Amino acid sequence: MKTTVIKHKGLRDLVTNRYLYALAIPAVIFSVIFAYLPMIGVLIAFQDFNPIKGIWHSEWIGMKNFVFFFRGQDWLIITSNTVLFNVMFIITGTILALTLAIMLTELGKNIGVRVMQSVMILPNFISWPIVGLFSVAFFTADTGVINHFLTSMGMNTIDFYTDDKVWPVILVLFNLWKTAGFGAIVYMAAIVGIDKEMYEAARIDGASRFQSIFRITIPMLKSTIVMLFLLSLGNIFGGNLDMIYSLVGDNTFLTSRTDTIDTYVFRALRTTGSFGMTQAIALFQSLVGFILVITANKVAGKLDKESALF
Fold first, then answer.
1. 42: Cβ–Cβ under 8 A, 6 or more apart, which residues?
2. Structural domain boundaries of the chain?
3. What is the pTM of this model?
4. What is the pLDDT of residue 174?
5. CA atoms of 278 and 264, how far apart (whole Å)
């Protein structure tokens, strides 16, 4: 009996590994239903959307929603704020997470290190609204902990909720507090995978701990760092709505420095009720993020093929 030979490489792989591909079917169905089918909502960006009429019967107005957004100066402010915040989050978060991971790894395995790991990842599981409630106790002008401390030291108090200059630093510090510990766990997992014989050979050659860190650990983590950077780059136009809105809210004194694309869309949806305009802004946000990821991935692939995501 003759066996049919499949010449196409993709079909041949599909038949050979059919059971493995079958395991992926539930995940594919889930992605199609909850990730790809909702993309039909992109049409709202080009419509004068009416919830009663629905997507298929609302009036088509073309690019008018985009023109409404880009004709003013608001889009420049919120876009620059969004990019600035996320660049600072990525840079500071990577540096601190990498530092914590190396420090804890060098300390070895003991109960103190395990306690520190648990303490570091705890903020990741605290929701931003709760953090926002606690922040009031620190930043209130009259009764805030920080201003009480400044007064006791003979220094001038800071009115945090009217002074927008201090908030970029505050937001970066809060982001570090909440995310750096969890990021350190990822780097620690990568460090554990480094061949220990390399460190032993370095010690035999007389290398110090710092030399081993800068000449073995960090270079071996290059692919991990680049991969996490590329994943973060996709959200560089994300406005961290939950964090910023929980800490700042609708405070008009602070919007010039803290307003991002997500907070602008959320506020516009509540005040104007225009689904089309808000969807147009979200589409702009998604397209730019997608282009950035594709471009950065190509650049990373040319510099180091192992660092590229695809």
1. 279, 283
2. 71-307
3. 0.80
4. 92
5. 9
- The low-confidence residues of the chain, meaning pLDDT below 70, are 1-8, 239, 303-304, 306-310
Structure confidence at residue 1 (pLDDT): 44
Structure tokens at 21: 């591909």
Place domain 71-307 in its CATH homologous superfamily: MetI-like (1.10.3720.10)
What pLDDT score was predicted for residue 306? 66
